[in-house]
Amino acid sequence: MTLKQYRACRLAIIVALSLSISLAIGLENYYLPLVFLLSASAGLYYCRQQLKAESVLADERDYAVAGRAARYAILAYGWLGAVGTFVLMALSNKEGIMYALSQYLAFSVCFLMLLNAFLFRYLSRRSR
Amino acid sequence: MRISRGITQEELARQVGVRRETIVFLEQGKYNPSLRLALDIAKFFKLKVEAIFLDD
Questions:
Q1: CA angle at residue B42 from B37 to B44, to 5 degrees?
Q2: pLDDT per residue over A46-84, tens digit each?
Q3: C-beta separation of A6 from A48 below 8 A
Q4: Fewest beta carbons within 10 Å, which of A78, A81, A127, B37?
Q5: What is the DSSP string of chain B?
Q6: How far is residue A40's CA from residue A28's CA, in Å, rounded to a whole number?
């Protein structure tokens, strides 16, 4: 499979996944999306295996840029999450949807920071 | 150097295992290659790393 064919295959799988998940949610079946997600992942993995060995999907520059993008994304989400949590809490009077959202935001930011710290430590040790 | 030898960016990228865009950024001076990539490029051109990447 050439790079062009792989990209077309990948796009087709993503579009099919989006449509099938939308359909499943419309039918109020929330287990089917999991099945579709696993199937799409398997399909993408299979397509990746069929790709010619010499094709380069991503190189060192892509990884470096992706690393910087991830760092900025974590920074932005951390700030937005922290500020958003307190704003929502201030507006919520400790009940209702806004309070629930503020809790979700707070815990998701904490989880992301912990995960980032753990992965950084792990990868830093591995690269010695 | 690449042009004088009649090599396309695509060909060079394929030979050293990167995408064509990376070669473009290298030639524009917008990207500093890793040591591995610099050595691979030098090996491809059969020149020293300094001859390719250092301005005299």
A1: 95
A2: 998 888 777 788 899 999 999 999 999 999 999 999 999
A3: yes
A4: A127
A5: -TTTTT--HHHHHHHHTS-HHHHHHHHTT--PPPHHHHHHHHHHHTS-HHHHH---
A6: 20
How far apart are the C-alpha atoms of A91 and A88, rounded to whole Å? 5
B22 touches chain A (CB under 8 A): yes
Q: What is the DSSP letter of A53?
A: T
Note whether B2 and B12 are within 8 A (CB). Answer: yes
Give the closest of A54, A58, A61 to B25, CB-based: A61
The shortest CB-CB distance from A56 to any of B19, B25, B36 is to: B19
Q: Is B17 on the interface with A (CB under 8 A)?
A: yes
User: A40, A42, A20: which is closest to A30 by C-alpha?
Assistant: A20
ipTM for this model: 0.80
Q: Which of A42, A35, A41 is nearest to A21 (CA)?
A: A35
Chain B residue with minimum CA distance to A65: B31
* CA-derived radius of gyration, chain A: 20
Is residue A28 classed as helix, strand or coil in its secondary structure?
coil
